[in-house]
Design a protein that fits this description.
Elements: H1 3-23, H2 32-51, H3 59-72, H4 77-88, H5 91-113, E1 127-131, E2 139-145, E3 150-154, E4 164-173, E5 183-190, E6 195-201, E7 209-216, E8 223-232, E9 240-254, H6 258-268, H7 281-284
Length: about 300
C-alpha cells in the first residue's frame, strides 16, 4: 500500500471515529423509535392523571403507572434513565425524538376531536359546568403595593362530594417581587374542620404562565367553602409586584346524582350535615300570627 493510500485510510478511520463519537449510541441506550414511543406514552399518562385529578397525588401513588409503561416495552428504570441522560447530552438527537412525539400527540388530539375514542356518551351529557368565581378577574400589584398575598374564599351551598373544581388563571411575577417562596394554594374546606389542599410553586421570572388546577372533592363530607391563595408567600420583605388575570373557578358535576349524593353525605357525616344551613336565616324564624280567642264570658242583659 503506497503512502497516499495509507493517508486516505487514516483519514477515513479518524472521520468515522469522530462521527461515531457524535452520533453513535453506547450499548444499552434505547433506539429512536422506542424512546419516542415511551415518551409519547408518558405524555398521555400525564394528561390522564391530570384529568382524573391524580396529578397532585404523591409520587408513590403515581410510580406504578409509569412502571407499567416500562414493563410494556420490556425495559428497566435504569435503562430508561441512562437513555434519557444520553439523549439530553445529545440535543440534536433528542430534538428529532420530540419531533416524533409531537407528531403522535397531534394525531391523537385530532382523533379525540373526531370522537374516535369516545363517541357521544349519554352520561357525559349529564355533566354540567358552572362558574363559581364571583370576584374580580384581574389583579395588578406594583412595587408600591402594600398587599402581601392574593387570597380568596368562595362559599356556595351547592358544593358537593363528587364535584370537580377547575381553577385557571394567568400570572406573571416580576423579579422585583421580594416575597419568598411564592406559591399557589387551593383548598376544599369541610364543615367538620377537615380540609384538602393543592400546593403549586410560583416563579418570579417575568414569564407569563397559565396555571390550571383540576381538584376533585373526594371526601364524603359536607363542603363549607373553597379557598386559597392565587399568590402567597412564606415571608414578605416589602415589595409585592405581580399581575394575575383571566381568573376562573368552574364546578363540574353530575346533575342527575345530586340528590343521592346529598343523602349519602348526610348518612356518612350526620353530625356536620345540616340542610338548614342552606336556607336563609330569615326564613327559619317566621312569626306565627295568632288570632285572639273569643271571650267565653257572656254579658248579662240589663233590664
Amino acid at each position: 500500500m503506497n503512502q497516499l493510500n495509507k493517508k486516505i485510510l487514516l483519514i477515513g478511520i479518524v472521520a468515522s471515529l469522530i462521527f461515531w463519537s457524535c452520533n453513535g449510541k453506547p450499548n444499552g441506550v434505547l433506539n429512536k423509535n422506542d424512546m419516542t414511543n415511551i415518551l409519547f406514552e408518558m405524555h398521555k399518562l400525564d394528561g390522564s392523571l391530570d384529568v382524573k385529578g391524580l396529578s397532585y397525588g404523591s409520587n408513590r401513588e403515581k410510580v406504578n403507572y409509569y412502571k407499567s409503561i416500562l414493563e410494556k416495552y420490556n425495559i428497566t428504570q435504569a435503562e430508561f434513565d441512562s437513555s434519557l441522560i444520553w439523549y439530553t447530552k445529545n440535543p440534536k438527537q433528542f430534538e428529532r425524538i420530540y419531533e416524533g412525539v409531537n407528531v403522535q400527540l397531534t394525531k391523537l388530539q385530532e382523533d379525540v376531536k373526531k370522537g374516535k375514542f369516545h363517541p357521544v356518551d349519554s352520561m357525559e351529557l349529564l355533566k354540567l359546568k358552572i362558574e363559581l368565581w364571583n370576584k374580580s378577574q384581574k389583579y395588578v400589584f406594583t412595587k408600591d403595593s402594600s398587599r402581601t398575598k392574593l387570597n380568596f374564599e368562595i362559599k356556595n351551598s351547592s358544593l358537593q362530594f363528587g364535584d370537580i373544581y377547575i381553577l385557571t388563571f394567568l400570572q406573571q411575577i416580576a423579579p422585583q417581587d421580594s416575597c419568598e417562596n411564592q406559591h399557589i394554594l387551593f383548598t376544599i374546606n369541610y364543615y367538620n374542620g377537615k380540609l384538602d389542599s393543592v400546593y403549586q410553586k410560583a416563579y418570579s421570572d417575568s414569564l407569563l404562565r397559565r396555571y390550571s388546577i383540576r381538584f376533585p372533592a373526594k371526601r364524603k363530607l359536607k363542603i363549607k367553602s373553597l379557598s386559597g391563595e392565587l399568590l402567597g408567600s412564606t415571608k414578605y420583605k416589602g415589595t409585592f409586584h405581580s399581575f394575575t388575570d383571566s381568573i376562573s373557578l368552574m364546578r363540574e358535576y353530575r346533575s342527575d346524582l345530586q340528590d343521592s349524593i346529598r343523602k349519602d353525605v348526610q348518612k356518612a357525616d350526620p353530625a356536620n350535615y345540616n340542610d338548614k344551613a342552606n336556607i336563609p336565616a330569615d326564613s327559619l324564624k317566621k312569626k306565627k300570627i295568632i288570632a285572639p280567642k273569643p271571650s267565653l264570658k257572656m254579658n248579662k242583659k240589663v233590664e
